[in-house]
Amino acid sequence: ENPPETRRDSLAALKPKLSRKWRSQSKDEGKIREYERLKEILYKLAYKHLSHGEWKRLAYHWAFTEDQIKAIEHQYNGPSSYKEHGFRMMLIWAHGLGHDVNPVKELYESLVAIGKRPLADTLRRKIDQENESRRRGHKEKCNKCSIC
């Protein structure tokens, strides 16, 4: 059996590993929240702001092929199916972005490129307001905190 100091040392050696794991889980949770927020934005964009052919203009801007567009269209049909097509296409687009790409910035620039600057500006303002209120919320916590 190990002497008590050795056992204590081995337990202490575990703590940094657990701490690192906890931090990475927290980071993953943040990424998940960001992705869920992006999905909300894309959903509202597809269902409330893009008209019939505009989702295809975005798809072509993002270099979707004709076959990819047809595959998206094949799954749903009906008078409002273009909304679901647009949402699915934007989810596919977002999934293909690199980790270093800001999806909201890319979306803004793409909306401007297809002639939807007013919508892009509205989107940017809304997100900036949300970020500002979130930042203020954190700031208020820090003002009450005795450490900061």
Automatic annotation (TrEMBL):
One of its GO terms (biological process) is signal transduction. This is Death domain-containing protein. CDD domains: Death. It comes from the Eukaryota. SUPFAM superfamilies: DEATH domain (SSF47986). Pfam families: Death (PF00531). InterPro entries: DEATH-like_dom_sf, Death_dom. Residues 54-127 form the Death domain.
